[in-house]
Amino acid sequence: MQDEISSPTFTIVNEYCSENMNIYHFDLYRLADLDEFFAIGGTEYFEKGICIVEWGNLIESIVPSNSIFINILKDNNDLECRHFEITTNNKSIKEIF
Questions:
Q1: Rounded to the nearest 5°, which phi and psi values hold at 39?
Q2: What is the pLDDT of residues 36-93, one digit of tens each?
Q3: What is the pTM of this model?
Q4: Which domains can be identified in the chain, with CATH numbers?
Q5: Nearest residue to 45 (alpha-carbon basis) of 75, 76, 67
Q6: How many angstroms separate the CA atoms of 87 and 97, rounded?
Q7: Alpha carbon distance, N-terminus to C-terminus of the chain
């Protein structure tokens, strides 16, 4: 069975779990501060599977060291074009890029 993947804007996090992998898709746009992320048990998800976080700048100071950041930027000259900036603080992951 396939589930439709949608933005979790109104639920803060959508969970997609299978036998092999768990994916947690967060949309933190509606959270006011880091305390709200702690209040929903957000850090517990880091140990459970892959976390994909929209508006992740709110929790940037507490993400695990093996995190990969993907920043999607608009192109001011071409409104249909997007640029992807991929960064990490982890040295071994940096070698992959």
A1: -65, -30
A2: 999 999 999 999 999 999 999 999 999 998 999 999 999 999 999 999 999 998 888 8
A3: 0.78
A4: 1-64 (3.40.50.300), 66-97 (no CATH)
A5: 67
A6: 9
A7: 34
